[in-house]
Design goal:
single chain; 259 residues; mainly beta; 2 domains; four-stranded antiparallel β-sheet; 14 strands
């Protein structure tokens, strides 16, 4: 069973398991060369150090895959996965768990070496409120590896109805590619870390560290963060509004990679 599979399907693996070892190195051109010389183009950090990778090919797995963690972009039924991935909405709060407009931390003008962080009142959606989770019975919580898809901003008078998608914010572009395979910008911001805030064992709110899903966060990816200007024009996240998080396919990055 996959740890974060919301369907909680249990699989049986046959006795034949093929194991392979790889030696990989990223070049300055953004290509990863494997033992066969194949080129893996999608890498956010094109100068990752020399590393060793292991893979397993498992045969005779039953039942058929119900939830696919390698799907491209959002895990949705009918595309790369038979079942939908987790899709939840969590309430936005300020950096102290309160009601001020300072709902984010990080440089609003662009990358400065510090992490981008957002804040929510809880990581468990309100299953009793319609639209907060698509798995209300088990009601899974937000976990590292999920991704921010959209947020409600202060100004709700525009054509977007006050909901800003990450795809629009980042200026995601696609050239012969699909969602989750941007050739520029990001269509999601991946959850890298979740930190409980407040008294130990009784958190008052949660701090969520995010990073680029397709590429490192650049100026557009910082422009929506709280500042006097974004508060004035209503483009930063609205306290009491909702963040929409979804499960996305693994993008090959890890805590050892750059965001």
């Amino acid at each position: 069973m996959f740890l974060n599979d919301p369907t909680e399907t249990v699989y049986t693996v046959g006795p034949t398991v093929v194991e392979r070892n790889f030696i990989r190195h990223s070049t300055s051109a953004g290509r990863i060369l494997s033992d066969k010389g194949r080129e893996l183009m999608d890498t956010m950090s094109p100068q990752v150090g020399h590393n060793h990778t292991k893979s397993w090919r498992m045969i005779d797995i039953e039942p058929k895959l119900q939830w696919n963690p390698t799907a491209k972009g959002e895990i949705k039924a009918g595309q790369d996965s038979p079942s939908d991935g987790l899709n939840i909405r969590l309430v936005i709060c300020d950096i102290n768990g309160g009601s001020t407009t300072q709902t984010t931390s990080g440089s609003q003008t662009g990358p400065d070496g510090n992490d981008v962080k957002i804040y929510v009142t809880t990581i468990k959606p309100d299953a009793g409120t319609s639209g907060r989770t698509n798995y209300p019975v088990k009601n899974p919580v937000l976990h590292v590896g999920m991704a921010l898809k959209s947020f409600e901003k202060i100004d709700d008078s525009g054509s977007d109805g006050g909901v800003r998608t990450i795809k629009a914010q980042s200026g995601a572009s696609y050239v012969d590619k699909d969602a989750g395979e941007c050739t520029g910008g990001n269509d999601f911001y991946v959850v890298r870390k979740i930190t409980p805030k407040g008294p130990s064992g009784n958190p008052t709110h949660y701090e969520i560290t995010i990073g680029g899903y397709d590429f490192p966060m650049q100026e557009n990816d910082h422009a929506w963060l709280h500042s006097a200007d974004t508060e004035s024009d209503g483009t930063c996240p609205k306290n009491g509004g909702l963040y929409n998080f979804v499960q996305v396919g693994m993008n090959g990055q890890s805590p050892n990679s750059a965001f």
